[in-house]
Amino acid sequence: MSEAELIRILASIIIQSAPLMIAVCGEVITERAGVVNLSLDGTMLMTAMAGFVIALQTDSVLTGFLVAAVIGALFAFIVAFGSIRLRQSQVAIGFVLTLLGDDLSAFLGQNYSRMPGPLVEHLGIPLLKDIPVLGPIFFDHDLVVYFAFVLVGITWWFMNRTQPGLHLRGAGERPEAAFARGVDVNRLRYLYTILGGALVGIAGAAYSLDVKLGWSDGHVRGFGWIALAIVIFGGWSPLKGALGAILFGATKALATALQRQFPEVSVVAFNALPWLMMIFVLLVSSSDLTERFITLLPRRLQRPMNRLLRVAPPLALGTRFEEK
Amino acid sequence: MTQAEAKPGDGQGTRWLARIWPLVPIIAALLFTTVLLVIFGASPIESYSAMFQGAFGGQDRTLSVLAFWIPLLLASAGLLVAFTAGLWNIGVEGQIVMGAIAASWVALTVSLPAPLQITLELIAAMAAGALWAALSAVLKTRGKVHEIFSGLALNNLAIILTNYLISGPWQPPEGGSFRGTEPFADAALLTRFADSRLSPLSLLLAAIAIFFVYMALRGTFWGLKLKALGRNAYSAFLLGVSSERQTILAMAFCGALAGLGGAVRVLSWFDSLRQSISGGIGFLALLVVMLASYRVLWVPLIALFFSAVLNGSVTLQLRTQLHSSLGGILTGVMVLFVLLFGDPGKLGIGGGKKGGEAGPMDTATSHVEQSGSGVPGAD
Question: Chain B window 306-325: which residues touch A at a Cβ cutoff of 8 Å?
Fold first, then answer.
């Protein structure tokens, strides 16, 4: 493998993982506020379809993204409203929305299947893109990819370094304490569920308008679930979540590379990689075996390995909060 | 979840509203799809009559609805048990697929007299479905991976395995068409009723399954243990219920019935292993059980209705070129509506207990809390 080819592969990994990063950030924001929005897969199918169709109709990629964000916010609102106001199961509502989004996208997008359409323009960053090796990998893409990276940084900064971010985490960790400090927990949960949903919507459109161009039935099926798994694997941190997204992008690239290397093995066998990976990463972050494995390591490595691999969900994740 | 038990003695007016409340989701779902049809320039009346014709216009159509109903009913019966234990067995779709694969494997490799052959196929299918489900259960109890995620991954792996088999080792001699294996021998197939896809034997098995589940959940110690686990895992532990054993047992039971459904798909709906062998029946079964809110006796009726809608929407597509996903939208909106507004008690209609009694669906949420979306550290 030549150096140029390696750089090309690494650059494609970055592109592949950008929409996942956006979706993961959205869901991290939602779940850190205490709400599980399980509808990601259906939401992203809907917004991939809607973003593409609207962009094609209006000839404006930006309008496509805006509509996608609104639809993502609407799906998230249903989850928030159903669980907070109507006190129903978040998981059940999210799951039904997943199936509904799948069918709705197939129906509404039926006349736009496999059509050429608009796409996000390539935009290399002057100067930065000329840096050897790093330039072509990170700085020679388009606005969606840059947005994903900036979003990861902003989300981390917002949640860990600002007062509203503290309130957000309070709503998800200790809602009673946050409430006692004057935080309107349920209002915040509405707000961040909807904001997270809007980001998930943008992620869906990022596929159909940038990374996996166009629309067809079930175009981005599965990516929403992968994003949800990455949120857990990333320990509800946007930074580790971004790493997880890149890991999955790399798995995909690896599958493609392996396939080229071993053409005699059936194509479908390599499709199994992301799903095996999903089970594996969840096992690593969750099972007791990892804990035992870490205690076998040298003392000095134990703490950093713990921080890297072990995760704990927000304490009040998925619970209801009632003002007394 | 408890509107069926709304006690007398409530206000007259709201009681009347509570009584017709179950109809509201159906009307809401029909309104929603009607709007979609109008947007796409189709006549709603023509479309719905095409769907109705597709489901009940003629004996062969109705038999098709029944034939589609059977695996759906088998999977739903299994899911009743899993849900009662508080388990979100989304992997049911993959368990159907694995059952279909195992039945196909026996059909392709073994050649016995028909009764033995069929028995072996059905047992293999149930075992494969049960194993696939047990894998999800062990990943949960030992690996602390939430069953939603393991189930989803295992669904996709089962589908990928199917595609691998029909494009590789099991492809027909005339070359890989990517569509399916060659048809199985007649002795390997279930006997079907009057040139239809309906097998009387599978109908009998489905009836036994739903009856068994009804009795098990109603009046056995096993049912009680499952309920205890589903409602409150901690008190179940205090009562001496082994949550690991019950989790694996409930999942494997559900998987076995789903696997049986998969066998019915390959041995009577089709005559070979096909690319999308389940056709979303597992996900549909999840919707059936959610809509039934665990009332076992409602499950066959709702499953039949869903089967009619889905079969009808295939005819709709043939006649009007509209995408057949309309049927899925109709069922999805209906279930969403019931989930959101279906419990009049929670809306303050009909005087049902405010907030409702904690039903298994609620507990399914708290299950996520307890195992922290498949994450450790929570316990």
Answer: 322-323, 325
DSSP class of A124: P
- Residue B371 and residue B363 in contact, taking contact as beta carbons nearer than 8 Å: no
pTM: 0.91
For residue B290, the chain A residues in CB contact (below 8 A) are 92, 96
Note whether B102 and B124 are within 8 A (CB).
Answer: yes
**Nearest alpha carbon to residue B66 among B189, B197, B179, B185:** B197
Give Cβ neighbours of residue A28 (< 8 Å, ≥ 6 apart).
A155, A196, A231, A234, A236, A237, A238, A241
Q: How far apart are CA A194 and CA B106, in angstroms?
A: 50
Type of residue at B273: L
What ipTM score was computed for the predicted complex, to two decimals? 0.93
B343 CA to chain A: closest CA distance, Å? 9
Could you read off the pLDDT tens digit of each residue along chain A, which spans 324 residues?
688 888 999 999 999 999 999 999 999 999 999 999 999 999 999 999 999 999 999 999 999 999 999 999 999 999 999 999 999 999 999 999 999 999 999 999 999 999 999 999 999 999 999 999 999 999 999 999 999 999 999 999 999 999 999 999 999 999 999 999 999 999 999 999 999 999 999 999 999 999 999 999 999 999 999 999 999 999 999 999 999 999 999 988 888 888 888 877 767 778 898 999 999 999 998 888 888 888 888 888 888 888 888 888 899 999 999 886
Chain B hits for A318, CB-CB cut-off 8 Å, are 365-366, 368-369, 373
B92 close to A (CB below 8 A): no
Is the Cα dihedral B198, B199, B202, B204 positive or negative?
positive
